[in-house]
Amino acid sequence: MHPPTPRRSRLSLYLDLIRWNRPAGWLLLLWPTLAALWIAAEGFPGWHLLAVFTLGTVLMRSAGCCVNDVADRDFDRHVKRTAQRPVTSGAVSPREALAVGAVLALAAFALVLTTNAATIAWSVPALAVTLAYPFAKRFVSMPQAVLGVAFSMGIPMAFTAVGRDVPWLALWLVLGNLFWVLAYDTEYAMVDRDDDLRIGMKTSAITLGRWDVPAVMGFYLLLLAIWGVALAPLGLGVAWYLGLGVALAQVGWHWTLIRGRTREGCFVAFRANHWVGFALFAGVVLGFALR
Predict the structure, then answer these.
(1) Which of left, alpha, beta for 235 (phi over 0: left; psi -120 to 50: alpha)?
(2) Percentage of residues in the chain with pLDDT exceeding 70?
(3) Is 162 helix (H, G, I), strand (E, B) or coil?
(4) Which of 73, 90, 116, 131 is the most exposed place for a label (fewest CB within 10 A)?
(5) CA 153 – CA 129 distance, rounded (Å)
(6) What is the DSSP letter of 43?
(7) d(CA 67, CA 100)
(8) How would you class 67 by CB atoms within 10 Å of its CB: exposed for 0-12, middle for 13-18, buried for 19 or more?
């Protein structure tokens, strides 16, 4: 006889629920948000805002995972990669998962309350888009675009948090980030394409079909082009263009990973994407430091 499987603690299940052991998700959200914060502040934004946006990003991404797993629990059971998630497997009830998500979202909102009225106002649509995204996969042919909006809301909030209006520069940064989300989340969708086709889920990988790889490359190049042109007037110098170059080199590597459309290659590409964001963030930070 096999020994009985030990019951997992609630804390262990909750950490699994929010993907604590897979930080790539919140890093994808963090780097463009912090880059916008540095740009808005024209340099180091101060420890208070750095802490608010870093912790707030982790908390909101974790809350989003709770909502997503409840919304997708009937779909996830048919996908090998997600079948053992706590809600899908029954280890955590939907109500319990939503309660965890609510606590995390409230903690994030408490952080926002330490900023100013404009940033608090922007947090409302940010929350609304976060809640809407999990359900977009039923109705929108490219739900990754909705995720792109959700993952870009920290950019205008960064400008308001330092006491500025939201300029056109912020909107260009949002547009570039939207294309980045389309790139990496299409790679993610390519991993599960066969399962998603079988269960009727809508994703960009399915919508784009055989144009998936060229589209992903195009999305990456649009990110780099838009951010490169938008930040050129700031005079960030060699450091910024070095960051762009490192990000571009990674895009070339991603092409080698996804061109065969294997699950393994696409998943490696997705999980490595936060380094693209880090290269851009580092370029911005060093650009301001050396300007």
Answers:
(1) left
(2) 94
(3) coil
(4) 90
(5) 9
(6) S
(7) 9
(8) buried
Q: Which residues contact 141 (CB under 8 A, 6 or more apart)?
A: 202, 204, 207
Q: Are 212 and 190 in contact (CB under 8 A)?
A: yes
| Residue at 200: amino acid letter | G
* Cα 120–chain centre separation: 21
DSSP state of 81: T
DSSP three-state, residue 220 = helix
At position 156, the amino acid (one-letter code) is: P
**Residues 211/79/253/171 CA torsion (nearest 10 deg):** 70
Encoded amino acid at 85, one letter: R
Exposure on the CB side of residue 192, measured as CA atoms within 13 A: 22
Question: What are the pLDDT digits (tens) for 241-284?
Answer: 999 999 999 999 999 999 999 999 999 999 999 999 999 999 99
Q: How far is CA 25 from the centre of its chain?
A: 6
DSSP secondary structure letter of residue 2: P
Comparing CA positions, the residue from 164, 147, 178, 124 lying closest to residue 37 is: 164
- pLDDT bin (cut points 50, 70, 90) of residue 24 is confident
What secondary structure letter does DSSP report for 26? Answer: H
- Cβ proximity of 264 and 216 under 8 Å: no
In DSSP notation, 223-290 reads: HHHHHHHHHGGG--HHHHHHHHHHHHHHHHHHHHHHTT--HHHHHHHHHTTHHHHHHHHHHHHHHHHH
Alpha helices for the chain (secondary structure H):
10-17, 24-41, 47-71, 73-76, 86-89, 94-112, 117-136, 144-150, 154-161, 168-191, 193-199, 204-208, 212-231, 237-258, 263-271, 274-290
